[in-house]
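batch job 7 of whatever, protein = Glycoside hydrolase family 3 domain protein
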Amino acid sequence: MIKDLIKQMTLEEKAGLCSGADFWHTKAVERLGIPAVMVTDGPHGLRKQEGEADHLGLNQSVAAVCFSPACASASSFDENLLYRMGSALGEECRSENIAILLGPAVNIKRSPLCGRNFEYFSEDPYLTGKLSSAQIKGIQEWEVGTSLKHYAVNNQETYRMTCSSEVDERTLREIYLSGFEMAVREAKPWTVMSSYNKINGEYASENKKLLTDILREEWGFEGFVMSDWGAVNDRVKSLEAGLELEMPSSNGIRDEQIVKAVREGKLSEELLDLAVERILKVIFKYSKADATDTHYDREEHHKIATDMAKECAVLLKNEGALPLSRQTKVAYIGAFAKIPRYQGGGSSHIHASRVTNALDIGKDKNPNIIYAEGFPHDKDMEDQSLFEEAVKAASEADAAVIFAGLPESFDSEGIDRKHMRLPECQNRLIEQIAGVQKNTIVVLHNGSAVEMPWADKVNAILEMFLAGQGVGEATDALLYADANPCGRLAETFPLRLEDTPSYLNFPGDGKKVVYAEGIYIGYRYYEAKKIPVLFPFGHGLSYTEFSYHDIQVTRGNFTEGESITVTAQITNSGKMVGKEVVQLYVGDRTGTPGRPVKELKGFAKVELKPEETKPVTFEIDARSLSWYNEEIGDWYAAGGTYELLLAHSSADIRLSEKVEFTPVREIPFRVDENTTIGSLLKNPKTAPIMSMMLSKSNGGNASGFGSSNEMLKEMTGGLPLRALFGFSKITEDQMKELIYVLKEQLK
């Protein structure tokens, strides 16, 4: 049917279908029954605009439920929760006649300074991939499409439309593409959105390797690729590379470029037909789906948003001040208590149907709460009278809860942060209140990591992130133990900005930004460098305690094409129902250079009553052990020992077990005059020949080459074969013969 429609379309109609009709709609071809469909910003709510449209959240949109942005939802470590949110979003899309929700956003948090980090999941690609896949599945069960974004290596707002992300192939694959790969393979998003930036000098929208070779041919993507709004540089090149839909409307300019290129023979019409076919498949998939139920229960979705906020909050520190009692006299301090930050700024800004705040919710249940503004919610401004009022209120109460965080101007699309600090007025007031109130509790509202110079002076810290419109109810429930904190950090909180792996290279010079840290970002970097952090990746406390025991693996060795299962028992050893997030890390102990200390390869959230025990199970395969080897252009796991680590956080390992892996493939070992002597001595196939040759050339012993002297071993081990011309007086014919024999031995 679709191919028949394409045959009936004019060249102009086909070209026109490859760009938007306006800001949010595709074009219709009414004479052929091709409808227009609407797309809208997400990823944690609907930003459906009526009337004049924009892409930066400046104009008003219809009321919708604002769920927890990814900075918070990722901290749930809960695929079921992301699926539930996705399903609610899919239902809302159907109700509002939205065909494609623009999200989720799966870019990696390379630096805490990225202004859009609130919209991204994690510094870890595995966690990113699993959670985004769950969200996509939930949305698309309603026959509503998603647009996985921003593809790819889009990790800053500074010069985001022109700057080139300079990144090596291994880092690209292991860190910046893995989340996309997992989501495409597991959840099959209907569309993918290409990013603004260049990648190694080539715009993402024109990058055939990314859009066709990797996305379609390797990963099996079957939908269409659309541009970020205004991201197309050269329309014909982008179409050839694999970008089907340009957004928003180009007012016909780009359509004419496509038509001209086809007529002049510079662009294949068959390629244009293929692009149109991919677009039409998605349009008809949405428009022909059953949409009989077009209304949703907004209050029920608000409850989902509130439940999410409870699950995502992370209790960073607690020395006994939490949980609070409803009978306790508590001072609530900070304007965020009344006007909470619950989402970031920019294109994902949702016109929330309603927003709750902790002060109103708390006062309804605890008449002993007093309030002092202390500082404003939207600026860094110190008012001495407000400070004095807040300090007085805190000193006269049994506990003080300071609602702190980042103003919206700090967490917004379009700008990166210049530092990791809270507004100075907040830091100063927290210090003063901690000096007069031993039970000082800080509740944070922020989209990414912040420095906490007062962390060792306060009793408790509850990280709410940007929690969505149910933030008030969720905060209240967590402070008073109506809910038990169970979130875990999806990003490391460093002690200071200067400790971060990209500090010397972020955000670049405007032309290029060099990813010099390679694969070592987040916890991978801090662990390899042994740099202390404020709070580690995966960290989070509870009002109860959990114990791990009885780790077992199905077998101690396996190979490619096989998998093993690791199981452990988890017990709630405390006195309150709670949820534990068990994290599985894999550590390469084969001696392969350039591997992180460990990497996240599994997680499970388990709810337990007091004294209850439940098992957790993880499956490990060859990909779980692998790194991307540029020499073979594929994923590869070396043979040898790997350690499976079950952990409460990346810094809190509870159980471990070692397994052996035997690869089927071997990395090609090439021998020429520049092959090092050391590598030949380490290879079991070439070592006997090389040892014999060195011994003969040195009068019966290998002299420095085979000496037990470690210094000499290191020095000679790094020498290329050609060095033997000088050190061992080998002839050219003998060198050729040696290389021939070594190559034969490797066959």
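notes: The chain has a mean pLDDT of 94.
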